[in-house]
Specification:
This is Endolytic murein transglycosylase. The protein is mainly alpha-helical. 51% of the residues lie in helices and 7% in strands. A two-stranded antiparallel sheet has the order 1-2.
Length: 377
């Protein structure tokens, strides 16, 4: 009987322990469900708030400026700072989820009542609600001295003031710090005439304030060049070129030909000459070296002593001689492969190529004979 009582007592204790264990498990499950429920509710509210308009009833317009070169994260932060969206992180996630891209820089008028899709569509189409006060157009193949003239004609900035900045060491170094992936020590070479020559991109720039500073103008131009260059950075690296060397070659190609096909052909000629090695012997570098405009380059010009003169110096000149169009950069990193070492342009603008000097002379005699009123070069 004693053994039986002990056994019954043990069974009761185990039943009691099991009951307690079940209660504990149930409590843990309930607590977990509550935590998950609260967490899910909070997460839902967080996301829902981020997706909804800041204030559906507030149509007051807010001016928002999206600078050139802004990333999606930059745009999200700007919109949140202006209280146009509720949450920058949700905006970024939403844009990524919908695979949206191609946002345009500019000044917009947006409101708190706009849906995210409406804001995204406005930024994608570049519908600028505030028209620029003025714009400055920088053509392809323009050097810094000409850019200074253009800026002076459109703003209150004096031409000499602009050029002073272009040789101001402190200013140049500040731009190098701001654009370290674009500008390096090569631009400070003592033979380089203007450190930023070739780096001020050729497009039309809109301005939304009356008196932009030189710093603001240059920053806009460098941002555009950086964006353009980094589309080709892998090809530049594959060529074994620095960005400075690539833009130097690009600028020469820009000044030597207009058509995309000719630019690739001429790029191939320059690569062949660099491999020989042979001087590039390209007339635009002589004109840049002289700093003067001439209808054509004469024999006397070819002997002009200057680091930029590629008749007197081998290899690339110290730096670019102008800014560029994208297809000139493309030609610089994607040359046409051939065996030509010479080319000459006819008076009609057609280019003729030769593998040796004798053939080149024949092309000159046939397609570009000296005119009576001009001295033969």
């Amino acid at each position: 009987m004693a053994a039986s009582n002990d056994q019954n007592k043990l069974i009761k204790e185990r039943i009691k322990e099991a009951s307690i264990a079940r209660k504990i498990v149930l409590i843990v499950i309930l607590v977990s469900l509550i935590v998950l429920g609260v967490g899910g509710y909070l997460a839902y509210n967080y996301v829902n708030e981020g997706l909804n308009p800041v204030d559906p009833d507030d149509d007051e317009l807010i001016e928002v400026e999206i600078p050139m070169g802004s990333s999606t994260g930059d745009i999200a932060d700007i919109l949140e700072d202006h209280n146009v969206i509720n949450n920058a992180n949700i905006f970024q996630l939403y844009v990524t989820f919908k695979n949206e891209s191609g946002f345009q820089a500019g000044e917009y008028q947006l409101s708190k009542s706009l849906e995210l899709d409406e804001i995204i569509e406005s930024l994608k189409t570049g519908v600028i609600m505030v028209d620029p006060l003025f714009s400055i157009t920088i053509p392809e193949g323009t050097n810094i001295e000409r850019i200074a003239e253009i800026v002076a004609s459109e703003t209150a900035i004096e031409e000499d003031e602009f050029l002073d900045y272009m040789t101001d060491e402190e200013f140049i170094e500040s731009m190098m710090e701001q654009f370290p992936d674009l500008l390096n020590e090569e631009i400070l070479d003592e033979d380089v005439r203007y450190p930023l020559e070739g780096y001020l991109y050729a497009i039309t720039y809109p301005f939304f304030e009356e008196d932009p500073t030189i710093e603001e103008i240059i920053e806009m131009m460098l941002e555009q060049t950086q964006n353009q260059v980094y589309e080709y950075i892998e090809q530049i690296d594959a060529r074994g070129l620095s960005i400075h060397e690539a833009l130097t070659l690009t600028s020469i190609i820009e000044m030597e030909a207009v058509g995309e096909e000719d630019r690739r052909m001429i790029s191939g000629v320059f690569y062949n000459r660099l491999d020989e090695p042979m001087p590039l012997q390209t007339d635009p570098t002589v004109l840049y070296a002289m700093g003067e405009h001439h209808q054509r380059v004469l024999y006397e010009h070819l002997e002009y002593e200057n680091p930029y003169n590629t008749y007197e110096n081998s290899g690339l000149p110290p730096g670019p001689i102008s800014n560029f169009h994208e297809n000139a950069l493309q030609a610089a990193v994607q040359p046409e492969y051939h065996d030509y070492l010479y080319f000459v342009a006819s008076y009609e603008g057609d280019n003729y190529y030769a593998e040796d000097y004798d053939e080149h002379q024949q092309n000159i005699e046939e397609h570009r004979p000296p005119r009576d009123e001009e001295e033969e070069d």
